[in-house]
Each structure stands twice: as structure tokens, then as C-alpha cells.
Write a sequence for this structure.
């Protein structure tokens, strides 16, 4: 995952089991990816949060405008330790209408570690 911009993120840190993650502190932080193209209908994350932590995702166009129905505030808050969690928004979990188009992903992390992202059909 290419990082383009971070705010409050501590960077890639190896965990005790030698996994690499992006870590958002308790005060919160954001990660914005470089533009990417994807194929698929679901965004799947591997992450861990504290009991007080959380993670949310927004899909943006290359100009930074949120994609309709995939705004950060519409993302269902993710809490816990998940190896394979499908991201859902109020409109559902399918950003497939953006498949093949360049997008950026904005992650809001609060006391959370993001290990991996992938799109699947």
C-alpha cells in the first residue's frame, strides 16, 4: 500500500509477531493512499483496535472528493481484531461501481493497527 499522506499516524511498525502495520494513536490519525485502481465488489481489511479504538474508511476520487455512499461518516465503525472484515457503509458494502477507476482510500484510525487491505469479488 503506497502511503501518500498521513496525519497522526506513527507509520509502519513491526508487531511482536513481525507483522507490519499502520498505527493510529488513541488521539486519532488518518492515512490517505495514493490513487489506485481495483477490481472487485468488497473491500476487506485485516486490522486490530483496542476496546476504545476504531477504524473507518472513505473512498475518494483522485481529487479528494468522497464517492457518493462511501463517505467516512457513512462507514460502519469497525472495532476489534479481524483478519478478514468486509467494510460496510450505510449504503452497503459494494464499491464495485468504482471498479477499474482510480480512487484513493482514506482511513481514520483511533488506537488501531491496519495490517492489510484488499478488494475481492
Amino acid at each position: 500500500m503506497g502511503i501518500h499522506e498521513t496525519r497522526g499516524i506513527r507509520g509502519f511498525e513491526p508487531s511482536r509477531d513481525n507483522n507490519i502495520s499502520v498505527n493510529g494513536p488513541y488521539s486519532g490519525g488518518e492515512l490517505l493512499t495514493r490513487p489506485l485502481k481495483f477490481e472487485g465488489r468488497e473491500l476487506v481489511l485485516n486490522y486490530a483496535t483496542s476496546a476504545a479504538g476504531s477504524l473507518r474508511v472513505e473512498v475518494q476520487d483522485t481529487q479528494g472528493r468522497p464517492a457518493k455512499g462511501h463517505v467516512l461518516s457513512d462507514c460502519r465503525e469497525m472495532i476489534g481484531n479481524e483478519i478478514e472484515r468486509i467494510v460496510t457503509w450505510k449504503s452497503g458494502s459494494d464499491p464495485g461501481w468504482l471498479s477499474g477507476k482510480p480512487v484513493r482510500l482514506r482511513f481514520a484510525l483511533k488506537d488501531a493497527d491496519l495490517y492489510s487491505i484488499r478488494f475481492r469479488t
About this structure: The first strand starts at residue 3 and ends at 7.
